[in-house]
């Protein structure tokens, strides 16, 4: 019998082309969210997984819950591979992606490979980790077939709502009792093990005034003038966020962005309503209630200059930060150890200034870290930008790291 680690390495070396084709087929099927019509991609992913020899559970989310989350369709996929008694380890990646947008020089659904990089929307975030986790599990199964003694269960959780919060993906799988993992790994990149990330608060601010003819604007209440004053106050206030720095390496400071604004009737009409939405990124040390309270007070104070306008603030999204939980220390240490050896440079645990749906596992008490296929930074990957790309060498390296980590976690002490 070959050493289990050697069996894993040899298997994955022989599957590189198959793994690349697997990822390419996933990239070629659109799963943009919005609009969030992801059923077709889930079915394609299920067919590809079944072709690899996995039994795939399809868990369609009820239409009412899908629509409540602003989507059209979502089917969560679960694969379970039990090796005996032991811990249940969930590997989660999301198949929904942001729309391509403008500026692409490659077909966003072409999965073209140039100089060792595959291009396409979702190729790095995070359809790549469908391939990482599926082939890591295949390698682990091959090691078991060659005589490796393993105990426990590996589950693949492939979900479709990360871009809108993860409520009907990871949270739904756990809340419905479909999965009860002891540990989880979420999609990430190859040169860092993420143990913490920011939270996020989205607020919608609606300013209502009263329309009037542009020839007599003083007979109305200008909602845009009021909104502009509020926005200016937010921009002035956010400069102070730079002074609030997280103690967790990699996180940095909180951020605030006004990313969407709409309003007005016509050029010659005083605007009667203006609505804008803001994105407030929270460092792990912050409390969501306090963050929202501070913003509501700021908005309210700025609005006092326009007593005839009505200002309404609504919470649109709240994503709590990811923090390490007791029980995840060995998982983190093993990922760092194997990643450092495989990629050839020190790989350490750190935080990132993003937010992901992995937080739903920690909210359920499941220790969770992020690790998967990708270059050093999201900027290198063009994540959420034109020409998103993935170095295929990093896909193969990350797969080896995950497989070897699972081997250690599921082997007898």
How would you characterize the overall build of this protein?
The chain is an alpha/beta fold and 413 residues long. It folds into two domains: 284 residues, Aminopeptidase; 120 residues, Alpha-Beta Plaits (2-Layer Sandwich), CATH 3.30.70. Helix content is 34%, strand content 23%. The strands form four sheets. Strands 1-2-6-3-7-14 form a six-stranded mixed beta sheet. A hairpin with a 2-residue loop joins strand 4 and strand 5. Helix 5 packs across helix 12 and helix 7 packs across helix 8. The radius of gyration is 24 Å and the shape is elongated. The two termini are 20 Å apart.
Largest β sheet strand count, sense and barrel closure:
6 strands, mixed
Query: Using DSSP, what is the number of strands?
Result: 15
What's the gyration radius in Å? Answer: 24 Å
Low-pLDDT regions: none
Strand order of the largest sheet: 1-2-6-3-7-14
Question: Approximately what portion of the residues adopt beta-strand conformation?
Answer: 15-25%
Distance from N terminus to C terminus (CA atoms, Å) equals 20 Å
CATH class of the largest domain: Alpha Beta
Mean pLDDT: 97
Number of domains: 2
Helix content bin: 25-40%
The helix tally amounts to 12
Coarse morphology: elongated
CATH architecture of the largest domain: 3-Layer(aba) Sandwich
**Within the CATH hierarchy, at the fold level, what is the topology of the largest domain?**
Aminopeptidase
- The assigned structural class equals alpha/beta
Order of helices and strands: HHHEHEEEEHEHEEEHEEHEHEHEHEH
CATH superfamily of the largest domain: Zn peptidases
């Amino acid at each position: 019998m070959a050493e289990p680690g050697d069996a894993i390495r040899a298997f994955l070396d022989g599957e590189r082309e198959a793994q690349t084709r697997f990822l390419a087929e996933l990239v070629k099927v659109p799963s943009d969210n919005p609009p969030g019509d992801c059923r077709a991609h889930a079915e394609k992913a299920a067919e590809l997984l079944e072709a690899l020899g996995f039994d795939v559970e399809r868990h369609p989310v009820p239409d009412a819950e899908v629509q409540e989350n602003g989507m059209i369709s979502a089917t969560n996929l679960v694969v379970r591979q039990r090796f005996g008694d032991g811990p249940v380890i969930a590997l989660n990646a999301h198949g929904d992606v942001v729309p391509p947008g403008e500026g692409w020089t490659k077909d966003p659904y072409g999965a073209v490979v140039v100089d060792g990089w595959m291009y396409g929307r979702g190729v790095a975030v995070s359809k790549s980790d469908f391939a990482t986790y599926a082939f890591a599990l295949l390698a682990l199964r091959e090691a078991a077939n060659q005589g490796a003694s393993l105990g426990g269960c590996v589950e693949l959780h492939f979900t479709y709502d990360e871009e809108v919060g993860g409520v009907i993906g990871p949270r739904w799988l756990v809340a419905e009792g479909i999965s009860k993992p002891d540990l989880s790994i979420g999609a990430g990149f190859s040169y860092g093990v993420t143990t913490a990330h920011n939270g996020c608060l989205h607020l919608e601010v609606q300013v209502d005034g009263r329309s009037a003819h542009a020839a007599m604007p003083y007979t109305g209440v200008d909602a845009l003038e009021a909104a502009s004053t509020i926005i200016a106050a937010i921009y002035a206030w956010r400069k102070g966020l730079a002074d609030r720095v997280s103690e967790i390496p990699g996180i940095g400071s909180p951020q605030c962005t006004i990313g969407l604004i709409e309003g007005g009737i016509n050029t010659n009409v005083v605007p009667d309503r203006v609505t804008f939405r803001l994105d407030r990124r929270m460092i792990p040390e912050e409390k969501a209630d306090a963050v929202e309270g501070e913003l509501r007070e700021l908005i309210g104070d700025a609005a006092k200059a326009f007593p005839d306008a009505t200002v309404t603030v609504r919470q649109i999204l709240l994503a709590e930060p990811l923090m390490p939980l007791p029980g995840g220390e060995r998982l983190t240490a093993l990922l760092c150890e194997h990643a450092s050896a495989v990629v050839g440079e020190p790989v350490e645990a750190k935080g990132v200034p993003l937010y992901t749906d992995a937080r739903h596992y920690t909210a359920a008490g499941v220790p969770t870290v992020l690790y998967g296929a990708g270059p050093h930074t999201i900027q290198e990957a063009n994540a959420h930008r034109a020409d998103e790309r993935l170095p295929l060498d990093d896909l193969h390296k990350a797969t080896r790291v995950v497989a070897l980590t699972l081997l250690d976690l599921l082997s007898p002490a």
